[in-house]
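Saturday, quiet lab. Running sequence design on the C-alpha cells for the scaffold JK sent over.
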C-alpha cells in the first residue's frame, strides 16, 4: 500500500511539474520576441544622451562622426562633459585647434569590435584604433580603463557599445 501512495505522489508531482513547465514556455518565447533591435548608432546615442556634448563636438571637429556612425562594430570609452571640463585649462581648446592631436586622443578611446562589460577581464590589454593600448582593471566590482573609472557600462548601439568613463584618457605617446 505504501508503494502505491509513493507512485501516486510521484505521478502527481510529475504532472504538476510538467504543467508548470508548459506554462513557462510561452513566457520565455515572449521575452525573446520582445527584445528590441537597437536603432541608434554611437554618435546618435551620444547626442541623445545629452551628457556628451563636448565629445560630440570634438568628434565632429576631428571629422570622425561619419566613421563612428558607420558599420563598426566599435567599443567607445566615452568621457562625459565633466571629464572634459576636468582637463587642465587650455587643453581642450588646444586639442580643438590641432586636428591631428585631437584625432589621436579621440581614437585612443575607441577599440575595434564590440566588447561588452562581460567580455572584459582584469589586466586585459586592448589595442585602440589610434594604435596604442589601454589596460582594463577590475577590482571589487569597479572597472577602470587605464586610470578612468567606468561609470556606466554596456550602452548598446546599432554599431557597437559605449562605456561611459569619468576621465579623458591620453595616449602614452602624448604624455611622455
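Result came back. Writing it out in full:
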Amino acid at each position: 500500500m505504501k508503494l502505491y501512495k509513493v507512485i501516486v505522489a510521484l505521478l502527481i508531482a510529475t504532472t504538476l511539474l510538467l504543467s508548470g513547465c508548459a506554462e513557462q514556455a510561452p513566457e520565455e518565447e515572449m521575452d525573446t520576441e520582445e527584445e528590441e533591435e537597437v536603432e541608434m548608432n554611437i554618435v546618435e546615442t551620444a547626442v541623445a544622451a545629452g551628457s556628451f556634448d563636448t565629445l560630440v563636438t570634438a568628434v565632429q571637429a576631428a571629422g570622425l562622426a561619419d566613421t563612428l556612425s558607420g558599420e563598426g562594430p566599435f567599443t567607445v570609452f566615452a568621457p562625459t562633459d565633466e571629464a572634459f571640463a576636468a582637463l587642465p585649462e587650455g587643453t581642450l581648446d588646444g586639442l580643438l585647434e590641432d586636428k591631428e592631436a585631437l584625432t589621436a586622443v579621440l581614437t585612443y578611446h575607441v577599440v575595434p569590435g564590440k566588447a561588452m562589460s562581460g567580455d572584459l577581464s582584469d589586466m586585459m590589454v586592448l589595442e585602440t584604433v589610434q594604435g596604442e593600448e589601454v589596460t582594463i582593471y577590475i577590482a571589487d566590482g569597479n572597472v577602470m580603463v587605464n586610470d578612468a573609472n567606468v561609470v556606466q557600462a554596456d550602452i548598446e548601439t546599432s554599431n557597437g557599445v559605449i562605456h561611459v568613463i569619468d576621465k579623458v584618457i591620453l595616449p602614452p605617446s602624448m604624455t611622455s
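Notes for JK: Helices lie at 2-34, 42-49, 53-61, 65-69, 81-85, 91-97, 99-107, 172-175. Strands lie at 74-79, 110-112, 124-127, 133-139, 142-145, 148-157, 160-165. Ask whether to fix the surface positions before the next round.
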